[in-house]
Design brief:
Length: 802
């Protein structure tokens, strides 16, 4: 069946291999799956039709879209373009959906219930076609399906044929297959190449489907079928099955059809009711018929979860997918460690501790040998992009600590995670505090957000190793954390700038500042902005702002009323805040280019950054920390107001005049990812934080050490990657190296010399603490002998004591 023998009279459709394959809209109105490991299929919907369907893994999109075309004499209408759409979940927290598409010309209505079969890899549609003008027999209903098996529209083969005498539609590619069965007969079937010989081409010209187009090999293909709806008064059930072989996919589709939609929906409902029933009651008051937004968010988080591994992807969407070729294999259906931990925090906040712990187990399994996690990965841990983001190495430590404090990990089970924590802490110590990429995956240097997560992670790791009896190791990690916390202002706080003078403030924390070997203090360096519509640009680091700086409060390193934080808030609001009718929203940073272009055209490597509802949720957490719960609730309402009609939270919302032809409206979701799972996790955490009156995921270690208390003075640390040249008197000098060495040093220009052997910290660093606390002003000079290599560094280094 993989490549059928063509029957007499069959023709190979013209137009091979079809137009360039593209994905579809990322503006999802629904996402769903069953609470069942047996199902292994996930679906999305937009514009009233099924969009990407993923099987048998969350990172394997297999269908671009599946919609219907209605024809009559001299009439052609496509439901996704020519109808008004409504979407409703079958009940709160149960992500099966009823889609209602009413033709704008008033001639027909298509209603369908969509869900995945809890027992197998099948998506079901329970369909009803109604003629609102004329007779039912005047119309023909045609299914149109675009296979994109295993993340690609190229090199798919489509055909129609029979399985055990049952007429079906088939496609296969990249080792996967799909089969489509209907509960009513097919009046006609066809396979063709997209844009040339697919069913849409024939039907739009007023022709019937071309059944002589029996098979379309190796290309961007489409399947079409005309359904016989007469005998059933416009009702039909359709099953889309998936498998490794066409026969397997066909069998699954037929089994689901013979079982029927109602039993599948009952099983589907019960699974989700049981899962939702185990969560905390964070539901907000709402009228009957209104969205229960808490249950929408919990459903979104669980829908993006792989039950078998514990992994959660960033989104079942591909931002601006309709404008992207299949070269963009990953889209957002990949695992980002940062998003994953933020999402696990949302699950924990909702009371789904078991699911949050499964995330930690998954992270432990895919950690790289050197201790870090890759920028993003497929479900099985294979890297997709290879950038290094230091916060992504610290976040899993914080997840462990949250689970431990929540009682989801007991003392007897904590030891299994100690190797993961030690390896991650070692990677941070060796490679931090500067990051190759900030949390927006764009620039290198010192980022307040990354610093906050790293320092909090090191303190949590210190607690873990101390609990295991390694007291000196814990002390070392705390000293590193203290030293980095002490220097946050040196690295990222700008004062007496053009902006600060204009705003009448002392200064503010910047978005990111470049790190160099010889000078680590914030200077007037330049940060590249590579995603602008007007080409590559740069901006001075001391004028580059971001709400990221509020992470210093969120993660407990600075108090909400710290004058430096207050100045930063004033600067952020002056430059990045936009008040819309629903409330305030913020941009990621000034001159951001990740968003639609000025005219609303989709982002394609450059554009203009738009407003992020996620940042409104983060700001609400800051307001709660500042003791303003009413303002936090107002921002919660603004966050929720940015959602789609179905309650899905977008990555970005449109911030300019309406562009109806591009479906862009002020304050409504733009063409970026929707839903953004991270935003739904932030929504849940905000509900929990408001209920509890404290920030749910604020680490207690940092608050106790840097806000409520005062840590001991940390050693003054010198590294080859951070060659500091001036030290205040009264500090001990720590030389921190990547391998064992002897430090040869003097305080009198080599008239007398002392040797200090480094000691192994156990975290991939070797330190030598020089007894310099009693030194007065002067010069310390030293050099390094690498003992393993038996080699001198060959350079004298100088530090002035003042």
């Amino acid at each position: 069946m993989a490549f059928p023998t063509l029957p007499p009279g069959a023709l190979v459709p013209p137009g091979a291999p079809g137009i360039e394959p593209r994905w579809t809209s990322s503006d999802k109105s629904a996402v769903g799956t069953a609470v069942s490991v047996a199902s292994r299929v996930w679906f999305t919907a937009s514009h009233g039709i099924l969009n990407e369907i993923y099987a048998p893994r969350l990172d394997m999109a297999c269908v671009r879209d599946f919609g219907f075309i209605v024809t009559a004499d001299g009439y052609f209408s496509e439901e996704k373009r020519d109808a008004d759409h409504q979407v409703h979940a079958v009940e709160d927290g149960v992500p099966a959906f009823r889609l209602v598409n009413t033709a704008r010309d008033g001639r027909y209505r298509i209603s369908k219930t969509i869900l995945s079969d809890p027992e197998r890899e099948v998506v079901l549609q329970d369909l009803r076609f109604e003629a609102l003008a004329g007779k039912h027999s005047d119309y023909r209903l045609h299914a149109l399906i675009a296979p994109h098996l295993v993340n690609g529209g190229a090199d798919n083969t489509a055909w129609y044929g029979d399985f055990k005498g049952r007429p079906m539609l088939f496609a296969e590619g990249s080792g996967r297959a799909l089969a489509i069965a209907a509960s009513v007969p097919w009046l006609a079937r066809s396979a063709g190449y997209a844009g040339f010989s697919d069913g849409w081409q024939a039907l739009s010209r007023g022709e019937e489907l071309k059944e002589e187009y029996h098979c379309a090999p190796s290309g961007n293909v489409a399947l079409s079928g005309t359904l016989d709806m007469e005998a059933t008064e416009g009702r039909a059930q359709i099953a889309i099955g998936f498998g490794t072989q066409p026969e397997e996919a066909a069998l699954r589709a037929i089994l689901s059809l013979e079982q029927g939609v109602e039993p599948a929906l009952k099983h589907f409902r019960n699974g989700w009711r049981d899962w939702q029933g185990g969560l905390l009651a964070l539901d907000e008051p709402h009228e009957p018929g209104q969205l229960n937004r808490f249950r929408v968010s919990t459903g979104v988080l669980a829908t993006h979860r792989d039950d078998a591994s514990g992994a959660i992807i960033a989104s079942l969407s591909i931002p601006w997918g309709f404008n992207k070729s299949d070269d963009d294999l990953g889209g957002y259906h990949l695992v980002w460690t940062r998003d994953l931990v933020e999402t696990a925090g949302g699950l924990l906040a909702a009371g789904a501790g078991t699911d949050a712990r499964a995330v930690l187990n998954y992270l432990s399994a895919i950690q790289e040998a050197d201790g870090h996690w890759v920028q993003n990965a497929w479900l099985d841990g294979r890297p997709y992009w290879h950038g290094i983001q230091m916060d992504e190495t610290a976040f899993p430590i914080l997840l462990y600590d949250m689970l431990l404090r929540a009682g989801e990990i007991d003392a007897s089970g904590a030891g299994r995670y100690l190797p993961m924590i030690e390896a991650a802490a070692a990677y941070i110590v060796r490679n931090g505090p500067a990051t190759q990429q900030d949390r927006w995956e764009e620039d290198a240097g010192y980022s307040p957000f990354t610093l906050a997560v790293e320092i909090a992670g090191l303190l949590a790791a210190a607690d873990a190793v101390e609990a295991a009896g390694r007291l000196s190791a814990a002390q070392y990690l705390r000293e590193v954390a203290d030293g980095w916390s002490e220097r946050i202002e040196e690295w990222t706080y700008a004062s007496d700038t053009e902006l600060s003078r204009r705003l009448g403030i002392d200064g503010y924390y910047v978005r990111i500042a470049t790190a160099t070997d010889s000078s680590s203090s914030l200077g007037r360096d330049f940060i590249p902005i590579r995603n602008r519509d007007d080409g590559a640009a740069v901006i001075e680091a001391d004028l580059l702002l971001s709400p990221d700086a509020l992470a210093l409060v969120r993660f407990g390193l600075r108090s909400a009323d710290d004058p430096r934080i207050l100045g930063t808030v004033a600067a952020i609001d002056a430059e990045l805040r936009r008040d819309l009718p629903a409330g305030p929203y913020w941009y990621r940073y000034n001159d951001d280019g990740y968003g639609e272009r000025n005219d609303g055209a989709p982002f394609a490597g450059s554009g203009v950054g738009r407003l992020w509802p996620l940042l409104t949720g983060e700001r609400a957490h800051y307001e709660l920390a500042a003791g303003r719960p009413d303002e936090a609730r107002r921002l919660l309402a603004a966050l929720e107001a940015s959602a789609s009609d179905g309650g899905l939270l977008p990555e970005q919302i449109w911030d300019s005049e309406d562009v109806p032809e591009r479906e862009l409206f002020l304050g409504r979701p733009s063409g970026s990812a929707m839903p953004l799972v991270w935003a739904h996790a932030e929504h849940i955490k905000l509900l929990r934080s408001i209920r509890d009156g404290v920030i749910f995921d604020m680490p207690p270690q940092t608050v106790a050490r840097y806000v409520a208390g005062q840590p001991p003075i940390a050693p003054f640390t010198w590294r080859l990657t951070d060659k500091r040249t001036v030290m205040a008197a009264g500090r001990s000098l720590r030389i921190e190296l990547s391998e064992t060495a002897l430090v040869h040093w003097s305080t009198d220009a080599w008239a007398s010399v002392t040797d200090c052997h480094t000691r192994d910290t156990g975290f991939g660093t070797h330190i030598c603490d020089l007894p310099t606390k009693m030194l007065g002003p002067g010069i310390i000079v030293f050099t390094i002998f690498w003992t393993a290599r038996q080699q001198w560094e060959g350079t004298d280094f100088h530090i002035e004591v003042i």
